[in-house]
Amino acid sequence: MPSRKFADGEVVMGRWPGSVLYYEVQVTSYDDVAHLYTVKYKDGTELALKESDIRSQSSFKHRKSQSSSSSPSRRSSSRSRSRSRSPGRPAKGRRRSASQSREHKEDKKKTIQETSLALPVLVLSKPSENNTKRYNGEPESTEKNDTSCIILEQKLKPDLEIKRVLEQYSLRSRKDDKKKEEIYSEKKTFMAVKPIEKVPTKTKELEFGGRIGTFMLILLLPATVFYLLLMCKQDDPSLLNLPPLPALESLWDWRVFGLFLLWFFLQVVFYLLPIGKVVEGLPLSTGRKLQYRINGFYAFILTAAAIGVLLYFQFELHYLYDHFLQFAVSAAAFSLALSIYLYVRSLKAPEEELAPGGNSGYFIYDFFTGHELNPRIGSFDLKYFCELRPGLMGWVVINLAMLLAEMKIHNLSVPSLSMVLVNSFQLLYVVDALWNEEAVLTTMDITHDGFGFMLAFGDLVWVPFVYSLQAFYLVGHPTTITWPIAAAITVLNCLGYYIFRSANSQKNNFRRNPADPKLANLKFIPTATGKGLLVTGWWGFVRHPNYLGDIIMALAWSLPCGFNHILPYFYVLYFICLLVHREARDEHHCKQKYGLAWERYCQRVPYRIFPYIY
């Protein structure tokens, strides 16, 4: 194994990926497996570089000195003498070259060339403040509304000028020129097609309270679900009225567990059907793109048809309500078994397939956050499947079961207006997610978080059994609302949905094709990664407008339950805490990824989620 050349904390010169420019960087760590140095630029940007892309400052300065005095004639003569020498008189001991013949004919061009010869020296010099803005992807004006092709042309314009000067008045051999041309070609391709990605290294900054915090969450999350469900079963679901603990044997039923497995594998079958388009996800750290089949909405239609057949043959769907706690226990047991399987298989996964946030080396932390980024069995992507299928569709089926249970228990011919509103609002949310299934490929869950207990329990237990809490509450605690109140709540939900959907559509469309003429009116701040930060539309209003829309909808889902108890408002309170925490994670990752560009964006858009508040 080769020994490392540069020590942690050492200040060296690092080559910017895909270019010939070197900048002063500080070595922060070294990966013994991938043989990559993690270096930090002055603006805070961190990148992983090979040893061949790093040079010591002493050798770098020596090369700079050579570049600035490489012409013997310029060392022996002053600038004014060089300009006044007759172009037809060659230096002593040297024959007249072809370039000198051209100088004789075009004396004015020679003067221009002499002035421009300083440009290659600037490439190797320490970047000034303006140069720093340029390499970080920031023009003098921080806002742009041009297409990505125009931005690329502006980025490459100084390099094109350098290349033209070097071709006309070369100070290197033909072999060096050819090598430089290849490097320049590599830079152009890199900047136009592939954004800068980091190869996964050891996770240093632990989230969720580190090892102790994640261990507590593994215990508290299931306990919270069971506590909420037991509270909803009580006549008085006050916070101080603790529910009695049920007998352990009453929590498990093999028939219920069998029905849960039947539901899960039915969704697997629907997922594997060769219907729907196949799309590519975002590039991984290796540059590879995984393929995903987009057929969630078709699976939802097939699921709805299956439920309709069961109701036609008079299957008692309110069986879900009668055994709701047992279904939650079965889902929790399955998610725990799935999490153990995911962690065990991740131990044999290659280094480049590990999650950037779940590779700490600590068992509890990696088990909770997820050690492997995209665990797959053949083409079957486990994380992507669980993200939208069994839990999200199960949420709709549970809501329908609660509606039927309310009608049966209270002898109603039609469901209550409150129950209709809750079912309708949440059905719209689920259908929207499945219809726009492709958008989930750009979320943090898919691109950054590994698949471990956090997502497995969240997708299979938390989403279907906590998000349906309002409908479950209304079965045992019916609430009557008037039509004007129902209309006002509906307007509030539509407002939240409009903000949520239009903001997400703007973001997803811009990420997929920033050169789309339909997006020409959007202004953005270009970054060193090749991506842009939107500063107009909803993303110029607050930094996370989709979170704002989500919170408004969550409030509309809880209002039909009235104000007798705080229990049905647990969802909106939890959701605010969740999104504020996720926003903090986003801020941290974006600061590391975009550097100065993110600071300028924060100055342009000061509010995070709530305008003029937070």
TrEMBL record:
- What GO molecular function annotation could you give as one example from this UniProt entry? Delta14-sterol reductase activity
Pfam families, A to Z:
ERG4_ERG24, LBR_tudor
Q: List, in alphabetical order, the GO biological process terms annotated in this UniProt record.
A: cholesterol biosynthetic process
Q: Topologically, how does it sit relative to the membrane? A: Multi-pass membrane protein
**SUPFAM superfamilies linked:** Tudor/PWWP/MBT
Q: Where is the composition biased (Basic residues)?
A: 76-97
Residue span of region Disordered? 53-145
Q: Does the keyword Transmembrane apply?
A: yes
* Catalytic activity, EC: 1.3.1.70
- Comp. bias intervals (Low complexity): 66-75
Organism superkingdom:
Eukaryota
- For bias kind Basic and acidic residues, which ranges apply? 101-112, 131-145
Sorted alphabetically, the Gene Ontology cellular component annotations on this record are: endoplasmic reticulum membrane; nuclear inner membrane
Residue ranges constituting the Tudor domain according to the UniProt record = 4-62
Looking up Gene3D superfamilies in the UniProt record yields: 1.20.120.1630, 2.30.30.140
Task: Mark the transmembrane ranges.
Answer: 212-231, 251-273, 294-313, 325-344, 455-475, 481-500, 521-542, 562-581
Secreted keyword on record: no
- Pathway(s) this gene product operates in, as recorded in its UniProt entry: Steroid biosynthesis; cholesterol biosynthesis
Annotated catalysed reactions: 4,4-dimethyl-5alpha-cholesta-8,24-dien-3beta-ol + NADP(+) = 4,4-dimethyl-5alpha-cholesta-8,14,24-trien-3beta-ol + NADPH + H(+); 5alpha-cholest-8,14-dien-3beta-ol + NADPH + H(+) = 5alpha-cholest-8-en-3beta-ol + NADP(+); 4,4-dimethyl-8,14-cholestadien-3beta-ol + NADPH + H(+) = 4,4-dimethyl-5alpha-cholest-8-en-3beta-ol + NADP(+)
Which UniProt keywords are listed?
A: Cholesterol biosynthesis, Cholesterol metabolism, Cytoplasm, DNA-binding, Endoplasmic reticulum, Lipid biosynthesis, Lipid metabolism, Membrane, Nucleus, Oxidoreductase, Phosphoprotein, Receptor, Steroid biosynthesis, Steroid metabolism, Sterol biosynthesis, Sterol metabolism, Transmembrane, Transmembrane helix
Location relative to the cell: Cytoplasm; Endoplasmic reticulum membrane; Nucleus inner membrane
The entry's protein name is Delta(14)-sterol reductase LBR
Task: Give the organism the record lists.
Answer: Sitta europaea (Eurasian nuthatch)
The gene that this protein is the product of is Lbr
